[in-house]
Amino acid sequence: MTDKPPRGPGAGPEVPVEDLSYTDASRELDGIVEFFERSEVDVDQLVARLERATAIVDELDKRIRRTRAQVEELVPKLEAVGRADGEGDPRGPAEPRRDGGDEGDDESERLPL
Question: Are 34 and 51 in contact (CB under 8 A)?
């Protein structure tokens, strides 16, 4: 027996949208889209499915925005750690020139990392 109640029209109580995983919400939304793509739409389910689809889209949008904000907050911190470890150059510390010269930065003299 499964812990998840069945979904779909007439399948019993629906899981609240905020309790669905992102994947489950996406799958349910796909099922609703398929419902509307059928040539014979059940008019009794039309409004309920539209409301559910709207709730799912709103919830997924909130999650995406929240995740984007978290990424935008964390990336600069990660870049700062990288700069501290690599002394400002994302490729790491520069290799000393083999000819002993110190004029300019000849990219052909750098070893790829």
Answer: no
**CA Rg, the chain, in Å?**
27
The single-letter DSSP state of residue 97 is P
The Cα–Cα gap between 30 and 50 comes to 12
The answer to whether the CB of 95 falls within 8 A of the CB of 110 is yes
Assigned token pair, 80:
């700062």
Q: Could you give the CA distance from residue 25 to residue 4 in angstroms, rounded to a whole number?
A: 13
Residue 60 CA to residue 18 CA, distance in Å, equals 9
39: its two tokens: 């040539």
The pTM score is 0.58
3-class SS string, 25-91: HHHHHHHHHHHHHCCCCCHHHHHHHHHHHHHHHHHHHHHHHHHHHHHHHHHHHHHHHHHHHHCCCCC
- pLDDT tens digits along 26-74: 999 999 999 888 877 788 888 899 999 999 999 999 999 999 999 999 9
